[in-house]
Amino acid sequence: MSKQLYHLQQEHLSRLQRDYAALLEEHRLDCLAIYSGHANAFFGDDQAPAFQTYGHFMHWVPLADVQHSWLVIRPHQRPQLYLYAPADFWHLPTRLPEEPWVDEFDIHLCSDHVSPALDGHAAIIGDVAQLPNASLKAQLNPATLLNRLDERRIVKSDYEIACLREANRLAIAGHEAAQAAFLGASGELDIQLAYLAGSRQRESAVPYQNIIGLNDHAGVLHYQHYDISPPRRRHSLLVDAGRRFRGYCADITRTHAGPDAPALFGELVGAMHGLKDELVQGVTAGTDFIALHEQMHQRLGDILIAHDLFRGSREQAVAEGVTRAFCPHGLGHSLGLQVHDVAGLRHPDGTAAPPPNEHPALRLTRTLSSGMVVTIEPGLYFIPMLLAPLRETSLPINWALLDYCMPCGGIRIEDNIAVTDQGPDNLTP
Ligand code: GLY
Ligand code: MN
Ligand code: MN
Question: Is the distance from the beta carbon of residue 166 to the nearest atom of ligand 1 less than 6 Å?
């Protein structure tokens, strides 16, 4: 851990201390216990799926796979970390990293599943439903406090932005390895393995299941398989894959044209890179993210027209839902300790900010402010299910050209951007 990152983390923890103290006093609480959560074994089995620690726990403690552990915060006192560390000869016992942040906590290594004693007016946050003995005297997951804590998380500290930048650097190495594997004619599974090796991580540690889609699989938004054998023809590759660093997530997508793609597809990939770059310029304090999402649709209309896929006007492409059939997801979302981070659909005062009716998949509807980190991920896909209703209309779509592109599946280009007072800071190298 570099000295600079440690200093940033120290500032991050000091600010958390101050902000939590103020929030607890405001909510008349003497203490707050944050439960890490734990994985449950599969039914009738002793094996459990991969686990991710609760975000508010990771906001303090930079360990993404801690289970059965507690953090207790009291205003103006040192945070108490009750770390589950069973005496166990089946597994390597839990050990704390030799990093300076450890000194910021009073650490209690616990050989059993403990519930820390809570005094005075107390609240517990986390996945307490699975705890048989959650203290009945404490408030459980109080909504107004959680809203405030989520609001605290949507604006990142310098430490968090440094972590997100490093997660991006590591992920990009994986993307380069994936591209090289594609050039070498690998199939989806081998591209995935190349990505994991290049980004130096095991599959259970990824922040979300990597999407590695060849050909028409690139048009399945959250394609979830890895074909073992390479396909006979190679039209395209879409890789949406991330990396964690100290809990913080990268979420990056690249699309590549293959040797069997029509030239048009390569041109569309280039146009989508240009669109991503243009939209990144809009990631500034004061930007209404819904308006930026709408700008994406207008520019998608331009791209469809410029490449002769649509022979009407931009206004018609947007108004008649043509661009939405080509891109059914939102422009982006908040990014942090969760890939789809908290508080994207809320106003700063905690009231709901739902997406507009015509854009139900938009995960961020807020006005951007300095310190937020968002993804910008315009897409253009050839999804038979969404295009089918348009075929029944007389809309001026160039179906012959579109059918020619169908085997390529689609395109998504995704970067991770921090909002600063000086404008966008693209964390993706
Ligand atoms: N990887 C999921 C997303 O881009 O939102
Ligand atoms: Mn993604
Ligand atoms: Mn994303």
Answer: no
